[in-house]
């Protein structure tokens, strides 16, 4: 997203309506779109440089980078939209390395015919999300594809962050005896999306939990610098994430069904739809694994942060060469917690 | 969650488990077949087996509608989508079932066929209304529970004069299949399943009632308990079966009285019999040809019968070699008896139908229960 030519006086209202091929052609229309939609809302010193790339200056510490693409239907859902989600997703990916996210890039692929008013709403939401997370969008790009070749808007974001020398967080660090903690209720995002997409009118509206977690992570690391694993259970939900970590660390896990926080309305919706809340996506929650001795301190730190009020210890890492995640069920029996095969839900994020 | 949590309550479960342990005779073994995939799923998902004494065994039966559809019918559905170019509407699970040469509807879709996943027959009707220039076929599968909605769709299509809508009917009936498990000639080839009683299908019985099982219990001298799908329903039903076995009784009992009555839903039955009639025979995957075990669309609705509207070629359909689905569907073998289980065949890349549907025995075993075979290794690793 290079800066618009200031000489272009035309107002966006002239082209207001919908995205057309000229918005991707590199000419005046594109410059206006960038100026009147993207730069207007995302404004910061880096974008104001007006060059093809952003000059970021120097940082001390190890750098972390994460990329994420967002294709979601519907684009607007209870509790969020693709703009906010594209910021949160990448900020959280960087934060799950234990790093402090510093900058974001954003690339938009827009489909011909997409209403400009909706595009602007998405950008406004993205700008707000970036401000709330304290991570500016410093560079970007826009492309337009012909009608029928896209799904409204796709957004790709990349995040860069800095990591202190002392932090060592990785999915391969879990050890037998460690505690497994989640920061809050599971399944809110996936059910929010599904309720909207399938036109299911639940009595209570279920909101997506999409939010940036960098501040929560900072508070957690301040309390327990030796956290071993952090991960956000997005697609595939808690079960996929626990299985990923178990495989990476070559350990097993045992969790308790009653220990996993799930909102009653989400549980009810899952029941209705035949889904397991453990398999449903989250966009504003994390899983932390730490040594057993640190568990109480970490839990307390999480619960004293607004984004970790419902944090709970859900289980323990055990030795198991098969890397199975098992669960004591509500009923008192045992079962495997598997990652879902293929798609349990139609695509949600 | 009211009405659900109480059927998963740990305290109650302990009480029922204690009663089962007290009443099960330690000198005998009890083998109970759950006909329905819903029960198989509940047993594994909640770890019900862990609350049973060692001498109570669950035998997983053929009651998963996705699992029992023969390969040839699936190949027909693929042909409808590919050769006849229809919009084929199907329930999600059917998409991934491998047909001959592992070809599934999801593959056909990837190659350009118009296959659409629907949640109800009404969605399929809507698609037909919105695409007047295209033929829309609803791929109907399932037991007695899913039959009334198909009947409703057929009646609606007729009333509206929807010329581009038809149903590829594969509805099957449970009572004849249960009888068949015990008496078919193939039983001799596949081995005899030890069954001391049946957990009867509950949703099916909410439509047909408990009465159709009376003849069966009498004829085969096996107790049947119509059981709900919640884990506590299953446990309570096991207790009722143990009592019958101990007393030497073989009756139809109803654990699921909150939904099932003796005569069932008479209105739904009338609707179904208005639209469908018995097929003389139908091939089930795993059970072979079972007489009077499926439904076809009556001549009065022939215009909406995809089998009449489209010419389907007779194909040599083939099931995957070494897949043990047929024996598993009869309860003769366990999923772990199959060489492919967990190696070539997993829910990610299913070889047989039992691995596709979440209600299939192989999928339930793999998804929720496979640690049972790995416990020795686990203990060894923990040491
Ligand atoms: S494991 Fe796969 S191949 Fe083997 S019986 Fe089950 S479905 Fe068939």
Key features?
heterodimer, A: 349 residues, seven-stranded mixed beta sheet, four-stranded mixed beta sheet, 9 helices, disordered N terminus, disordered C terminus, B: 383 residues, alpha/beta, four-stranded parallel beta sheet, 17 helices, 13 strands, 39% helix, binds iron/sulfur cluster
Short description:
The complex is a heterodimer of chains A (349) and B (383). Chain A is α+β, with helices and mostly antiparallel strands and 349 residues long.
Characterise this structure.
The complex is a heterodimer of chains A (349) and B (383). Chain A has 349 residues and is an alpha+beta fold. In chain A, 30% of the residues lie in helices and 21% in strands. Chain A contains nine helices and 13 strands. The longest helix of chain A has 18 residues, at 116-133. The model of chain B is unreliable at 375-383 (pLDDT under 50). In chain B, strand 1 (30-36), helix 2 (37-45) and strand 2 (56-63) form a beta-alpha-beta unit. Chain B is an alpha/beta fold and 383 residues long. Chain B is globular, with a radius of gyration of 21 Å. Chain B has helices at residues 10-23, 37-45, 65-68, 71-82, 105-110, 121-130, 147-160, 174-183, 186-190, 202-208, 214-220, 231-247, 266-275, 306-309, 325-329, 361-369, 375-382, and strands at residues 30-36, 56-63, 87-90, 115-117, 136-142, 165-171, 197-200, 224-226, 252-254, 276-278, 281-284, 288-291, 295-297. Chain B has 17 helices and 13 strands. The chains are: A alpha+beta (349), B alpha/beta (383). At the A-B interface, helix 8 and strand 13 of A face helix 1, helix 16 and helix 17 of B. Bound molecules: iron/sulfur cluster. Iron/sulfur cluster binds next to helix 15 of chain B.
């Amino acid at each position: 997203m290079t800066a618009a030519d200031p000489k272009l006086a035309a107002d966006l209202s002239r082209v207001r309506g919908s995205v057309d091929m000229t918005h991707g052609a590199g000419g005046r229309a594109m410059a206006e779109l960038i100026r009147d939609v993207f730069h207007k809302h995302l404004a910061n010193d880096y974008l104001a440089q007006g060059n093809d790339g952003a000059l970021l200056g120097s940082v001390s510490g190890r750098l972390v980078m994460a990329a994420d693409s967002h294709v979601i239907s519907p684009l607007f859902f209870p509790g969020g939209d693709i703009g906010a989600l594209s910021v949160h997703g990448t900020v959280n990916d960087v934060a799950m390395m234990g790093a402090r996210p510093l900058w974001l890039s954003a690339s938009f692929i827009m489909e011909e015919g997409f209403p400009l008013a909706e595009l602007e709403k998405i950008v406004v939401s993205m700008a707000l999300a970036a401000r709330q997370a304290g991570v500016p969008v410093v560079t970007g790009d826009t492309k337009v594809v012909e009608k029928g070749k896209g799904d409204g808007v796709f957004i790709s974001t990349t995040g860069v962050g800095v990591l202190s020398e002392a932090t060592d967080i990785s999915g391969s660090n879990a050890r037998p005896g460690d505690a497994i903690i989640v920061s809050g209720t599971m399944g809110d995002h996936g059910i929010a999306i599904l309720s909207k997409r399938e036109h299911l009118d639940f009595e209570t509206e279920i909101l997506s939990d999409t939010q940036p977690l960098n501040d929560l992570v900072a508070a957690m690391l301040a309390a327990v610098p030796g956290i071993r694993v952090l991960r956000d259970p997005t697609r595939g939900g808690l079960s996929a994430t626990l299985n990923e970590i178990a495989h990476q660390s070559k350990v097993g896990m045992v969790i308790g069904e009653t220990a996993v926080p799930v909102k009653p309305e989400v549980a009810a919706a899952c029941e209705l739809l035949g889904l397991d809340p453990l398999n449903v996506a989250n966009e504003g929650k994390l899983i932390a694994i730490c040594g057993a001795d640190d568990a109480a301190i970490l839990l307390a730190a999480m619960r004293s942060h607004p984004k970790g009020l419902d944090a709970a210890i859900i289980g323990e890492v055990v030795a198991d060469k098969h890397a199975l995640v098992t669960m004591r069920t509500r009923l008192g029996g045992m079962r495997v917690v598997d990652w879902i095969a293929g798609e349990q839900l139609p695509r949600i994020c | 969650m009211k009405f659900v949590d109480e059927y998963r309550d740990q305290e109650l479960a302990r009480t029922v488990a204690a009663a089962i342990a007290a009443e099960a005779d330690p000198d005998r073994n009890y083998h109970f077949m759950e006909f329905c995939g819903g029960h198989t799923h509940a047993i594994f998902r909640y770890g019900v087996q862990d609350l049973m004494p060692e001498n109570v065994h669950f035998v997983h039966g053929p009651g998963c509608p996705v699992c029992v559809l023969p390969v040839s019918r699936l190949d027909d559905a693929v042909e409808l989508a590919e050769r006849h170019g229809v919009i084929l509407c199907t329930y999600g699970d059917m998409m991934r079932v491998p047909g001959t040469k592992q070809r599934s509807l999801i593959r056909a879709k990837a190659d350009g066929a118009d296959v659409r996943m629907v949640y109800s027959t009404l969605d399929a009707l809507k698609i037909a209304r919105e695409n007047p220039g295209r033929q829309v076929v609803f791929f109907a599968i399932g037991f007695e529970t899913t039959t009334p909605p198909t009947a409703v769709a057929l009646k609606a299509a007729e009333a509206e004069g929807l010329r581009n809508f038809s149903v590829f009917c594969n509805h099957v009936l449970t009572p004849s299949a249960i009888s068949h498990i015990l008496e078919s000639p193939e039983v001799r080839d596949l081995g005899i399943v030890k069954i001391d009683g049946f957990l009867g299908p509950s949703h099916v019985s909410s439509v047909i009632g408990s009465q159709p099982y009376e003849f069966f219990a009498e004829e085969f001298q096996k107790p049947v308990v119509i059981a709900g799908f919640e884990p506590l329903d299953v446990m309570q039903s096991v207790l009722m079966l143990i009592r019958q076995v101990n007393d030497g009784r073989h009756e139809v009992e109803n654990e699921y009285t909150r939904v099932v009555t003796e005569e069932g839903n008479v209105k739904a039955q009338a609707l179904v019999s208005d639209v469908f009639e018995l097929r003389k025979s139908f091939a089930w995957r795993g059970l072979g040809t079972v007489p009077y075990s499926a439904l076809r669309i009556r001549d009065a609705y022939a215009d909406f019968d995809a089998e009449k509207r489209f010419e389907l070629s007779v194909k040599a359909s083939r099931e995957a070699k070494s897949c043990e689905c047929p024996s598993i569907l009869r309860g003769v073998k366990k999923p772990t008896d199959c060489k492919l289980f967990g190696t070539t065949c997993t829910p990610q890349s299913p070889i047989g139908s039992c691995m596709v549907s979440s209600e299939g025995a192989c999928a339930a075993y793999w998804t929720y229960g496979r640690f049972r075979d790995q416990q020795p290794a686990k203990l060894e690793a923990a040491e």
